[in-house]
Design a protein that fits this description.
The protein has 240 residues and is of the alpha+beta class. It has two domains: 123 residues, Fructose-1,6-Bisphosphatase, subunit A, domain 1 (Fructose-1,6-Bisphosphatase, Chain A, domain 1); 105 residues, D-Maltodextrin-Binding Protein, domain 2. It has eight helices and 14 strands. The strands form three sheets. Strands 3-4-5-6-7-8-9 form a seven-stranded mixed beta sheet, with helices on both faces. Strand 8 and strand 9 form a beta hairpin. The protein is globular, with a radius of gyration of 17 Å.
């Protein structure tokens, strides 16, 4: 449902785009898709809570909460770049138990359930076995974002130690870690709905996900995904 709705408005010249108070863009597609997902959850799981990027949190009574990002990568979406996705996570007592990332313009979908492994397009996925930063591929959001948090020099130093770097950003960096194409992904500023789903996918693929402080939580304001072998070294390199 979400894929059909987002694809229908992708590269549509009539797409309405506005700016939120934090100066990030939001489209009518963001809001329409989140409303549709919320309505579906309310019908099938009326006792579950819902937290999304575009609308206020709805409390539940059963200890379950859905985390929604209708379009992760909205800046790409409004510029016609096909790297964007709908991200849906399910938490139980604040622990992520299911994660789904669907990128219809790429024709890709990733998902995982706690204790049942991670998958992409129907096939099991696993993180890489790269154990040396000199052989690692690093994906990130932007250099400016690290500079804004006083980590510009630390980030550039880490990047120079890696074999290859690419500014892929958003969900794309993290799911590529999960499927072993990238070894490290780092973002100094994220929201819960940006990474709740990818945390489950990365961890179920055998990797490690934390904030920059090393806490394995999606609401820490930052995100680092690795194959696990490189994680402590990456956190040390990005320490203020």
């Amino acid at each position: 449902m979400a894929d059909v709705m987002t694809l229908a408005r992708f590269r549509d010249r009539d797409l309405a785009v506005s700016t939120k108070p934090d100066l990030t863009p939001v489209t009518e597609a963001d809001r329409t898709v989140e409303q549709a997902i919320r309505a579906g959850i309310a019908r099938s799981r009326p006792d579950h809570g819902i937290l999304g990027e575009e609308f206020a949190e709805v409390g539940g009574q059963a200890g379950w909460r859905w985390i929604l990002d209708p379009i992760d990568g909205t800046k790409n979406y409004v510029r016609g770049i096909p790297v964007w996705a709908t991200c849906i996570a399910l938490q139980h007592e604040d622990e992520g138990v299911v994660g789904v990332v669907s990128a219809p313009a790429l024709g890709r979908r990733w998902w995982a359930a706690r204790g049942h492994g991670a998958f992409a397009d129907g096939q099991p996925i696993r993180v890489s076995a790269v154990a040396d930063l000199a052989d690692a591929q690093l994906s990130y959001d932007s250099v400016k974002s690290f500079e804004a948090y006083g980590l510009g020099e630390q980030f550039l130093s880490l990047a120079r130690r890696c074999w290859r770097t690419r500014g892929l950003g958003d969900f794309w960096s993290h799911v590529l870690v999960a499927e072993g194409a990238v070894d490290v992904a780092a973002e100094p500023e994220v929201s819960l709905w940006d990474v709740a789903a990818v945390q489950v996918i990365v961890e179920e693929a055998g990797g490690r996900f934390t904030d920059l402080g090393g806490a394995a939580r999606p609401d820490g304001g930052s995100a680092v995904s690795t194959n696990g072998l490189l994680h402590d070294e990456v956190l040390g390199a990005l320490s203020p």
